[in-house]
Amino acid sequence: MRFIDEYRDPELVRKLLDAVHALAAKIGRPITLMEICGTHTHAIGRFGIRRLLPENIRLISGPGCPVCVTSISDVDRALYLAERPNVLFATFGDMLRVPGTGGRSLQQMRAAGADIRIVSSALDALSLAEANPAREILFLGIGFETTAPTVASTLQSARRKGLTNFSVFSVHKTVSPAIQALLDDPELNIDGFLCPGHVSVITGTDAYRSIPAAGRSAVITGFEPVDIIDGILMSLQQIREGRYEVAIQYARGVSQEGNRRARESMAEVFEPDDATWRGLGLIPESGLSIRREYASMNALNRFPLPGIPSVEFEGCRCGDILRGVISPPECRLFRKACTPVNPIGPCMVSSEGTCSAYLKYEA
Ligand code: SF4
């Protein structure tokens, strides 16, 4: 199949791996690269890439899964909103099993009778609003720059249509401030980043400027084996030469400028706001709040929230995993109390989560 086979070509993979091994030997010191995209984490596991690399090249996973980085307080707030009278709560399927305080989840609430529907896009939620004018349709807006523009255009569309029963609880986040937090983290020593292909389609290279400025490599990388190994090779070239830049490996999907129209749509509806990330804590201006012009469609205005005390599940180390400080087998609950059937933290729940990837491919 075109565009897939050519990026899984065993001969090409072998050549790239030879080049990675040769360059890693020349560099001669341990190198740590972080992938900051859940899709990368799963592709690395699925294609067994970690095992093919030289001993001195270590890949660690970062905060690239939007479900995983959603703080427990935001999960608790979503649970509260989903139980408001007359609310039809629409969400992506991955959020359903994410536990809040005390292990309660949207899935449990749905089983107990709350009207919680899985949708595949914000537009699906908008259709629910049109079909159910007597109900309050509340959509949980989650994700990075990849999904935020589609939610923004849905809110614009809702306003054009004059819908008054549609609102969004935005827990959207942006990648660039999180990268800065990782660069500033004294516990981490990352030599370079494999930057997320999907997010970069929207942001272009601008979102990653801080990485070369801090003397680390940055390569926007695709998701097939050839892409990932090529991305690693390009990272090592930057490190070896001490010449840092934001390079694009995933040139078939990403341009330097990104998608300006999508960013404009996002900026019309959302404004940067402080946000709390699981594992990374409060990061200034890393979230997207709904602008005043769209206040009537901001779920937080329609359904004022009480103070909700949130408590993390004891022993779950998702926070450390999302910072790349530990790998899943280092969590004592991994594969024991915490499994895909009985997930304790979001890193095991989400299809993009690091713990689920490890269990599926590497344990
Ligand atoms: Fe949390 Fe489970 Fe991962 Fe441990 S294995 S960090 S409990 S999700």
From TrEMBL:
Recorded family membership: Belongs to the HypD family.
Query: Do you know which Pfam families this protein is assigned to?
Result: HypD
Q: Give the highest taxon in the source lineage.
A: Bacteria
**Cross-referenced InterPro entries, in alphabetical order?**
Hyd_form_HypD, HypD_1, HypD_2_sf
Q: Which UniProt keywords apply?
A: Iron, Metal-binding
- Report the transmembrane regions from the record: none
Keyword Iron assigned? yes
Q: Its GO biological process terms? A: protein maturation
Task: Quote the Gene3D superfamilies the UniProt record gives.
Answer: 6.10.20.100, HypD, alpha/beta domain 1
The record's section on PANTHER family has: HYDROGENASE MATURATION FACTOR HYPD, HYDROGENASE PROTEIN ASSEMBLY PROTEIN HYPD
Species, as recorded: Syntrophus gentianae
One MF term in GO for this entry?
A: iron ion binding
What is the protein name for this chain?
A: Hydrogenase maturation protein HypD
